[in-house]
Design a protein that fits this description.
This protein is α/β, with parallel strands linked by helices and 916 residues long. It has 25 helices and 37 strands. An eight-stranded mixed sheet has the order 1-2-3-4-5-6-8-7, sandwiched between helices. Helix 10 links the parallel strand 18 and strand 19. Helix 6 packs across helix 11, helix 14 crosses helix 18 and helix 16 packs parallel to helix 17.
Amino acid sequence: MTPPEEPDTAGQTLAGLPLAGRPLSGRPDGYPAELEADVVLRDGATAHLRPITPDDADLLVEFYARVSEQSKYYRFFAPYPQLSDRDVARFTQVDYHDRLALIVTVADAMIGVGRYERTGRRTAEVAFLIEDAHQGRGLGQLFLEHLAQAARENGITRFVAEVLPDNRKMITVFTEAGYTVAREFEDGVIMVEFDIAPTDTSFGVMQAREQRSEALSIARLLTPSSVAVIGASRREGTIGNALLRNLRDGGFPGRLYAVNTDTKAEAIDGVTAYPTIRDVDDTVDLAVVAVPAEAVVDVVLDCAAKGVRGLVVVSSGFAEVGAEGRRRQRRLVGLARSYGMRVIGPNALGVINTAPGVSLNATLSPLMPSRGRVAFFCQSGALGVSILADMVGRGLGLSSFVSAGNRADVSGNDLMQYWYSDESTEVVLLYLESLGNPRKFSRVARRLARRKPVIALKSGRATQGVPLGHTVRRSHLPAATVDSLFRQSGLIGVDTTGELFDVAQLVAHQPLPKGRRVAIVSNSDALTLLALDTMAGCGLEVAGEPHTLSADATADDFCEALTSVIADDEVHSVVVIFTPPVQSNVAEVAQVLAAAAAGSDKPVLSTFLASRSVPEQLRVSDEHGGAARGSIPSFLSPQYAVGALAKATQYAEWRRRADDQIPSLPNVDSAGAEDFVAEFLQRHPSGADLDDADRQRLLSFYDISVLQAFPVLSADEAVARAAELGFEVILKATAEQWRMRPDLADIWRHIHDEDDMREAWAEMTRTFGVASDPGRAQFVVQKMAPPGVPVVISAQEDVAFGPVVSFGLSGVATDLLGDRSYRMPPLTTADAAEMVREVRAAPLLYGYRGSDPVDIAAIENLLHRVSRLTLELEEVVRLDLRSVLVAATGATVLDTSIRIAPNEKPRQDMPARRLT
């Protein structure tokens, strides 16, 4: 690589970077603001990535002065001690298309710069320079991800680089990115070249790095060695007093400090006190902030100066109070991230971590649950208090708890990344009031659910409401989309907090079921009937006849029945119902039940004395005195027990799915489709619906064929067209308001000859009238497709979810009932199969009442191709295969509708890491 060339344009006035967290004062023309991103580095700290501007000249000079001579030599292949004015001008003045430079800043300092320069129509040279003190923090990988994403959007498909042989760090960046890298050695320099199209491998590498860095960023918040409560108070009833007391009384073993600007005391409630956090004569890992909202920004700056690693902001008065609060909240998060800190809150209840050596209760709740294996994330502070009380009441042990309030920074996605690798957590509970980034949520949740059960309760599904303080994109999709998202991601979706804990009790203590067959052992006929009714409604099967014992059954009777069903290979789960007789034998039955279930790989659950927890008699104690695995949970009634078992069974089936790959589709021309969309938007800058010819062309890039329909203006023209097609045609009305009428009057089928066509024309013009515009066809002639079942496949670009594909059978009844299935691309083979089978009308596809089964594989193939199209072409904002006739062999697409429009808001889950 040669030293810098002469600048393309004259130099401009140099200016320094604004204060961290503030927007740039002057952005040049063409500045791509969408490339700005807050990012998490390898060590869990945050930084800000953005395109360079001419105003960054001073920042660049200061950065370059801190870079070692060796790093400069690796960058320019020659001694290059300082940058000239021409160098600075060239490096800071880019066109953001053929020449792009991205910088990473922490606070007011640049710590790295990466750039590409186009060298050919589809090729660009890429290079990085990273300050030595920040090498090893993953900046090279971040630059490569973001530069590749920007380059692809600018039509570049391949990166090249020149690297000195002993610059092993740079070579590693390229070779470990997941791309197929070609290397050649020439004139003492290694020439590296690779395609930058995302691959399964490169995306997998990105996800693994994202998980590690985001997990570390949360670990910095949940495992501090020292905590300062800013706004601590000795006055009873205040937030600052409650936080300090709960931290102290919760047994936090680390260093604890009280900070209050009004205090002159040396201690508050026995905790060493300081007027500001800057005055603390020790390091502080975590700051818990309880000061008025207008003072929080100053606190953040103090924490940054002190080197604090994370903030829990309990203070209210932010986005939940209106426009001024939203500005204050954006400022808080922008500042904190720019100084390397993550934020829980604002308006948060706080965090709990029961791990040995941590014992952190940085919340407003005095309840410190016992140590356990269940982690919990919620957003509502008020609900958080109730949740903690319920967990304590049920004896459900906790590993960690986060109530994120307005969720301005740290979200459920971040916590799931942490719990994925947290050995103390085996079960994850989520109470969600909004989904900030549904695509990332789905991706992260699916990865976690492959390893640990994730039980989720989403409020506001019916209204799609967003709580005050949650600054998220508002979806316009139906509520069923969230339920489908949960199923696709392997989440155990529940409807109430009671159900949330019921399922948690089961999966935290018992193994997952291996099938749907359930044995019942009961000493109550009435409760057995309730269990059977619930099983029928949940899709569970009874394994043989229930073992209904007498009301005064002895412990030996229970032992005999339990031994039999647990040994039976046809039994997958066991539900035990025990109500005590007058002559109580509770202890004996409990002992038998615990002994029979010990070591079994089948889940055993009970309605034991109608208790709602793990009764002491059925508990296997862990080293901390809590309920260990193997403990038998009890439920208030058989309905609750069976309901929880049904959820666990569905989740176990999801985990067992073997065929869960994204299929490779032949005959797909993605590049041709992208060129077509670009050319269409040149003709229609504001977007437009595609005509028949353009729809045919676009779909052909994904090997989707449409049976051609021919517009006709008169009966004579209809007859002539039908004759060309050899008759056996239909005559169809085209106006949207006529489609899918309940009486099917919009289509005249089985037209065999001229007389049939003229009769059809006469009848349909009587029904629909004559077109007001004589030059516009209101009917089309189309060859009849093989008989089959009509279905609809659609895709829509949603501002929050991105592309969403739906499936259903055609017809007014389906529309009225909302009988649709939904999934987010990319679809695995199992996703497509589930979409077809989960609609309530699916039996019509499988030979209902003697009809012929249709070609399910053809439907799934279309679902995969529509999924691929809408995933790759985000400008396709709506696509409808409005009438697909699926026969015994094959499927015929009869009618389509497509709209292409500029993408106003980029999708939130791009193939480059960023905090959203």
